Amino acid sequence: MKLLYKETTGLIIGVYYNVYNGTGRNYPEYIYENAMVGDIRALHVPCQRQVEYQVFYKSSLVGLQRLDLFVASEVGVELKVVPALLPIHKAQAISYLKVIGKHVGLLFNFGSPEPEFERLYFDPRPPQNDLDAAIRALPEFPTSYLTPELTYDVIGGLFEVHTTLGPGFIHRIYANACYHELQLRGLDVRPQKAYQVIYRGRPVGEIKFGHLLVGGPVFVFPVAVQDINDIHINNLKDWMRVQDIPMGILANFYDTSLNPIVLRI
């Protein structure tokens, strides 16, 4: 099977090896980006950098995303400076290909002890999600808080957003997409822009945080963080108590799989 844009991707890979071999391993990402752009343009190949694209979720604009490099109007390129490429890095790069509407991408790592890269192909066919199995794997929801129908709609909506967008975007994009998806499901959903940090029962300051109030009895907290421990869950529970919301659902869209966490007070 013939590779798409074989000549262009081969040229970019050659530039990657030159830059990798000509630089150290611990520079900021923009150093490698500058070097690659210079070499690619020196070969008289068009190369755009940090181009901003609109991210749509089911025809609704939910945010903006930047692509490291876009070469010859054909190939999306993402750069990393990490000890080793992980599946999440590949998944993120494919998410960006969706945004720009292209099939072929390259993912390069400048932080590994040896050159490391992935040639990516975006298949526009959506993956299949076993929603019933995902919900069965969650802790049991108290029936006094959420009806089975509301549970299915909320959790189903979160999985639909993750499947459609994929990982790799900032949390605000996921919050906007979740809002639109839950609206499409006919739910009463209201966006929230901040929560109060509660200390010894009193508010001590406001934190900007995009979350959703769904149907009155539940908060939905969409996040996109590498380490879920960075989210102060006890602070979220304190805010739920102040607002008299008995249940929350914390959904981290950073990873390749979605594992919602049920918060109760």
Description of the structure:
- This protein has 265 residues and is α+β, with helices and mostly antiparallel strands.
- Helix content is 35%, strand content 31%.
- The chain has helices spanning 6-22, 29-42, 87-100, 131-136, 148-165, 171-184, 233-243, and strands at 47-57, 60-71, 75-80, 104-109, 116-121, 189-199, 202-214, 218-223, 247-252, 261-264.
- The strands form two sheets. Strands 1-2-3-4-5 form a five-stranded mixed β-sheet, sandwiched between helices. Strands 6-7-8-9-10 form a five-stranded mixed β-sheet, sandwiched between helices.
- It is elongated, with a radius of gyration of 21 Å.
- The mean pLDDT is 88.
Q: Count of DSSP helices? A: 7
Shape: elongated
What fraction, in percent, of the residue positions are helical? 25-40%
Average pLDDT, to the nearest integer?
A: 88
For the sheet with most strands, the description reads: 5 strands, mixed
Q: Kindly report the spatial arrangement of strands forming the biggest sheet.
A: 1-2-3-4-5
Low-confidence segments: none
SSE sequence, one letter per element: HHEEEHEEHHHEEEHEE
Question: How many domains would you count in the coordinates?
Answer: 2
Radius of gyration from the alpha-carbon trace, in angstroms: 21 Å
Distance between the termini: 56 Å
**Beta strand %:** 25-35%
**SS class:** alpha+beta
The tally of beta strands, per DSSP, is 10
Can you lay out the helices and strands and say which pair or pack?
Blueprint: H1 6-22, H2 29-42, E1 47-57, E2 60-71, E3 75-80, H3 87-100, E4 104-109, E5 116-121, H4 131-136, H5 148-165, H6 171-184, E6 189-199, E7 202-214, E8 218-223, H7 233-243, E9 247-252, E10 261-264
Parallel strand pairs: 3-4, 8-9
Antiparallel strand pairs: 1-2, 2-3, 4-5, 6-7, 7-8, 9-10
Helix pairs in contact: 1-2, 5-6
